[in-house]
Amino acid sequence: HVGEGCDQIYVRPVKDANATPQMVSTGKGTTTCAYFMPGDKEIIYASTHLASPECPPKADQSLGYVWSLYEGYDIFHANADGSKLKQLTKTPGYDAEAAVSPDGSRIVTGHEDGTVRVWDATTGVQQLVLHGHEQAVNAVAVSPDGSRLLSVGDDQLARVWALDTDDLVELAEQRLNRAFTDPECRQHLDL
Question: pTM of the prediction?
Fold first, then answer.
C-alpha cells in the first residue's frame, strides 16, 4: 500500500474488505518485503526509517520497472499492530530480503555483503552467519520442513544450506575427513 509519498506497511482483516487498512510501519522512510510470522500475531518487514525519516529518491522508471535497492534498508520485527518494534539487521547496505521458518522460530536474511544470517525470532539474537556468495544475496527461502534454506545471489549462484548447525558441522567434517575444531566453527560458521 502506498502511503504519504513512501511505501508503508498496512494490515486489515482478510474477511472484511471494507475495513480501513491500518498502518503498522512507522510512517517514516520507505518499507518493503513484509511477512506475517506463523500465527499472524507478529510481522517482519524492511524499512529505511532509521537511515532517514524522509522518502528516498524514486528510481528512474523511464525504461521499465526498477526495484530500488536503498542502502538504508534494515529488517524489523514487530507485533502485528506495529508495537514492540525491534531492529534485527544492522549491517551496511541493502538488507530487505527475509524468510521465516515454518515454525516461526527463525528468521533468515540475505545481505548485500554476500552473507546469509539466521536469527532467533523470539530474542532477535543472530544465531548463524553463512558465507558463500561473492555478491549480494537477493532472495532467501526456508524449506517446508525447516531443515534447509535456499539463498540466491547476484553472483548467479543458488545455494542450499543445512539450517541446523549440527548438520553444518557434520557436513564440514565429512568433507574434511576429520573433526571440525572450535576455532574453525567460529571462523567458518560464526558460532
Answer: 0.78
